[in-house]
Design goal:
The complex is a heterodimer of chains A (279) and B (289). Chain A is mostly helical. Chain A is built from 15 helices and no strands. The longest helix of chain B has 35 residues. Classes of the chains: A mainly alpha (279), B mainly alpha (289).
Chain lengths: 279, 289
């Protein structure tokens, strides 16, 4: 397709532009991450050297094991998994039926309800920090992952994406099932959900990644160190942990989401532009 | 008629859990937030009405003006980098016909990192001694910078991290928008004798104006709420140079347990962001119609 610059005008020019972009993009986005992964294997003494060594003079891959053990990362991984998986499950269990009802059952006041939900997207998250925190405290849900699950379920964007997808499902399939005497719950479970795999994949990945990345809510909810997620625990450890161990901890904490991204990148990138700004 | 009632009952059954979650965690807090701004609230005594006292306390706090000035600086700097860079990057990437998948993957990779990880990694890269950034500067024969330790560069350093971590999203959204520009427009412009820069300005920019405007507004709203980077990297220092509105709000609420004053600050933030949100709504509405 024709773009800004005429194609094939100058082979050399294109090659130079391609190489330059590849180098710049790699240096800016990949190099810092590689630098962390490699530097974590240098001893703390070597990390203090100016200028730094490029590759470790002494390789200490066991730093990763040491970091896992000393910072008790297993516990924080488990806490984070409980938050992320719970948020994902509760969000789907709550928002899928809601979106289906708004899309297909069209109840009285349905439009008003959707409008009220979308209104919350317009509320800057920061503005709700204090009142939501106090509400969580009133419910006795401080230091309880359930607080984050329910908070995640009140996600208007997920409801909106699901509803828009359900709106586009062919009416005939649903009508046929209805004539066969299927109730709405059976219809949703047996017919609609299997047809909705693409959107469920997008919504699921975004739910898990958002929960894994979240910092401010876990920070507010989990004052008990034993309950904290990786992000909260790592920033608590940062001031008095040796650099090499800290770097290893940071790498380990990011590995699951980066891995998830590498595996599901097509879904993630497709979801980004599908749900993105057009909505 | 009876069937209609039964259908409505089913529908509300399906909606009940969501309605409850939204009511407790969104709608009620919105209303409560307004009330809290005019109350004295701590965990010790019952809330009491104090009128505008919370706002007066804020205006008397020397950090109040500092926090707004810093937040504004962050927003402006974030726009300079976070708005122009992803657009130009997308324009360049759109021209390249090789390594497409690699570019997309790599640009979006930092978006996947937890913000705390990005902040702590960059805090280490910024280290004036063995840090990677000063090593690179010295390698180029330039003097190293103080980065986070220097009041003149601390905010800029935070902006660079936030931009690095987030620009993948904007880049890929722009890239999608660029691909929907009809090629004939470029051909026509070229036949009229327009060079690359004029084509960029007269074809690319107007054709993507809507997406550009929407992301601009969303970005302003997001950057005005910056919290994680200053909280994790500088705690507001050095010399309060990175105290943002949200950091101040956090201090009022969770250091001083003064939830009323924190809520008053939320309301002021809401007023400012509300203006941008209204603008955003008008822009998207007009595009829908």
């Amino acid at each position: 397709m024709r773009t800004l610059v005429a194609p094939g005008r100058s082979r050399t020019g294109y090659a130079i532009a391609l190489t330059a972009t590849a180098i710049v993009v790699t240096v800016v986005f990949v190099l810092p991450l590689l630098w962390v992964v490699i530097s974590a294997m240098k001893p703390a003494v070597e990390l203090a050297r100016v200028p730094p060594t490029v590759l470790p003079l002494t390789w200490q891959p066991e730093t990763y094991v040491e970091a896992w053990r000393l910072m008790d990362l297993g516990r924080y991984f488990l806490n984070t998994i409980v938050v992320a998986v719970g948020t994902w499950a509760v969000q789907l269990a709550v928002d899928v039926p809601a979106a289906y009802a708004l899309s297909r059952l069209k109840p009285v006041l349905g439009k008003g309800i959707l409008g009220m939900m979308l209104l919350t997207l317009m509320m800057p998250a920061a503005v709700l920090l204090v009142p939501t925190y106090l509400t969580i405290a009133d419910l006795g849900l401080l230091n309880n992952p359930v607080a984050l699950w329910l908070l995640g379920a009140a996600n208007a964007f997920t409801v909106f994406l699901l509803k828009r997808f359900f709106d586009q499902l062919p009416v005939e399939v649903l009508e046929a099932a209805k004539i066969d005497g299927a109730g709405q719950l059976t219809l949703l479970w047996r017919i609609v959900l299997p047809l909705s795999r693409p959107i469920l994949a997008v919504v699921s990945i975004f739910a898990v990644v958002a929960a894994w990345k979240d910092f401010i809510w876990p920070l507010l909810v989990f004052s008990d160190p034993a309950r904290q997620t990786l992000s909260v625990a790592l920033q608590r450890f940062a001031p008095d942990t040796p650099v090499d161990l800290m770097l290893a901890g940071l790498v380990l904490a990011s590995a699951p989401v980066v891995g998830l991204f590498l595996v599901f990148q097509r879904h993630v990138l497709a979801g980004l532009t599908a749900g993105g700004v057009k909505g | 008629m009876r069937r209609r009632v039964a259908e409505n009952l089913t529908a509300y059954g399906f909606l009940s859990a969501a309605l409850l979650c939204f009511a407790v965690f969104s709608w009620y807090p919105i209303a409560r937030g307004v009330v809290l701004g005019f109350q004295q609230v701590d965990f010790v005594a019952a809330p009491t009405w104090v009128g505008w006292e919370n706002f007066e306390r804020l205006f008397a706090d020397p950090l109040f003006a500092v926090a707004w000035r810093n937040t504004l600086l962050f927003t402006v700097l974030a726009l300079v980098f976070g708005f122009a860079v992803p657009f130009l990057l997308a324009v360049v990437l759109n021209e390249l016909r090789h390594f497409k998948a690699y570019f997309r993957l790599v640009v979006y990779l930092p978006v996947m990192l937890p913000p705390v990880v990005a902040a702590l990694v960059w805090k280490w890269l910024y280290d004036p001694g063995p840090g990677l950034l000063n090593t690179a500067l010295r390698g180029l024969g330039l003097p190293g910078l103080g980065w986070l330790d220097d009041t003149s560069t601390s905010m800029l350093s935070l902006v660079l991290v936030a931009t690095w971590a987030n620009l993948g999203t904007a880049t890929l959204v722009y890239l999608a928008a660029l691909q929907s520009i009809p090629g004939e427009l470029y051909e026509a412009a070229e036949l009229d004798g327009a060079g690359v820069l004029r084509r960029l300005w007269h074809v690319t920019v107007p054709q993507t104006r809507f997406v550009l405007l929407v992301l601009l507004l969303l970005q302003v709203v997001a950057t005005m709420q910056v919290f994680t980077e200053p909280y994790v990297m500088t705690s507001g220092g050095p010399q309060d140079s990175t105290v943002t509105v949200l950091l101040l709000l956090y201090r009022y609420a969770f250091y001083y347990n003064d939830f009323g004053t924190a809520s008053a600050l939320s309301l002021l933030l809401l007023l400012v962001l509300g203006a941008f949100t209204a603008l955003y709504l008008r822009v998207t509405r007009r595009a829908d119609a």
